[in-house]
Fold:
Amino acid sequence: MSVKIAKYSGFCFGVKRAIKISTEAAMKNHEIITLGPVIHNPQMVEKLAQKGIKSISDYSEIKGRPTIIRSHGVEKGIMAKLHRDNIEIINATCPYVSKTQEYALQLSQDGYQVIILGDKTHPEVIALKSYVEGEAIIVAKSSDLPEGKFNKVGIISQTTRRIEDLQGLVKILVPRCEELRVINTICNVTSVRQDSTIKLAKESDLMIVIGGKNSSNTKMLARISENFVKTFHIETASEIDKKWLQHKDKIGITAGASTPDWIIVEVYNKILKCVGNIEKQVSKVEDIPGFKEEKNG
Ligand code: SF4
Structure:
């Protein structure tokens, strides 16, 4: 029996960076705050809480404590309030997200009607919108566009959208505006994880997708994998049922961009243990067959 991991799995560059910045800050401070969880993974959030990183949902709960800005970024107004209140800011915004925010501001200052491709309820998009001077239009898909013609349009995207959706939006807008500026702000992390999951699912008898049940990119990996083979979405190794592995020859595992390495390693080792193959256990994700380390997002 073989157990393989999808080539690109687990933490992306931006999340790794945010965790590093947060844990280093936690070593220097008694207690620090994040507005919302640093990442969408309950086990990692719990681990960070033990290091003194407390997640809150309301600005009023900061009470003067140093505050981490998550990889998704926060609204411009919140940044201004933190400066006004003299709060120490630990900025873990992913540089790709910061760049997108700069584009949002620049396009609107240059007189473009900014259209954001993204999920209007996602924190990254909420923050992005706040950088637009004037009204931004947010669309999850091209059919969400309001009727009518536009003069100057500038398109940016939530970093995790699919390139096909951006292309679809451009195609619809070209005949409907005089000038169209498209800035491709899509980060390839999502697509490379999806593509490598599909590749592995096609050659596996069973797939196990690891990651927070609240992580949208992990849920998407599970949905994609289900199209090819029986798939289970789990958060931790303790959820693995030995029965799933019976009569399976090729087991594939994959993990979302917010799934920590140590959980992936635990899952891999538990699978090996369940099938009575403990000599191949690993201590780091890089040693799992199939894994390829990413240099950046
Ligand atoms: S998915 Fe891309 S943009 Fe988002 S945090 Fe990760 S590296 Fe940054």
Q: What stands out?
A: Residues 9 and 45 are 19 Å apart (CA to CA). The radius of gyration is 21 Å.
